[in-house]
Amino acid sequence: MPDNHGVETLNELLSASLWARSLTPAQLERVEAETQVREFAAGAFVCRKGEPVEQWIGVVDGLVKMTSVGPSGKTTTFTGVTSGGWFGEGSLLKDRTRKYDIETLRASRIALMPRATFTWLLDTDLGFNRFLLMQLNERLGQFISVVEQDRLLEPDARVARSLAGLFNPLLYPDQAADIQISQEEIGYLSGVSRQRVNQALQVLEKAGLVRPAYGGISIVDLEGLRRFGE
């Protein structure tokens, strides 16, 4: 079930990525040549906690979730990453092993940029460095929100915030107002049962924040979703 903002190939992913827009043709050619695209079935692990961090990861097409299992066995979902998104730069900058699992929620095509390519961009392109600062700041905000969501928010608000997180204009600059996502997938991202997601969506629709769309959800009031439950 692909997203509908037009990212289907590595070239289109790069065209939709803010950091790639400042690259020279020669830089872009090297990135395209050295970045691999792999296909993963739904429910597959793109990478596992504890594995060596050797790649920066982009979602060409699909939907993945970033999770971690604590000592008590509780699973925390930090965020979902949809088509057009890149992640894992923090681990490449400071860690040798990954601190979380990345699992596909549907069949997905994933771009894998080698550490050497990532480091070369970091060393040679000012625009790439500026993008990483912005990206890291946005991710930090998301993770802080997850802590608040997990401890304080009731299910309707958790669903609202999880949906809003997929429409961050800095992380996903070309995301359309309609997103193809199932209630089951929303449940995986928000930590809420599918049945409870259905109830939450009805509440959000009555509040004028979302409306049903073919195969997914249409966002009517993004700021309202972000503030829901405050």
From TrEMBL:
A single GO molecular function term of this UniProt record: DNA-binding transcription factor activity
Cyclic nucleotide-binding domain residues: 19-139
Listed GO CC annotations: cytosol
Family matches, as SUPFAM superfamilies: cAMP-binding domain-like, Winged helix' DNA-binding domain
Species of origin: Usitatibacter rugosus
Name used for this protein in its record: Transcriptional regulator SdrP
PANTHER family the UniProt entry points to: CRP FAMILY TRANSCRIPTIONAL REGULATORY PROTEIN, DNA-BINDING TRANSCRIPTIONAL DUAL REGULATOR CRP
Domain of life: Bacteria
UniProt keyword Transcription regulation present: yes
Keyword Transcription: yes
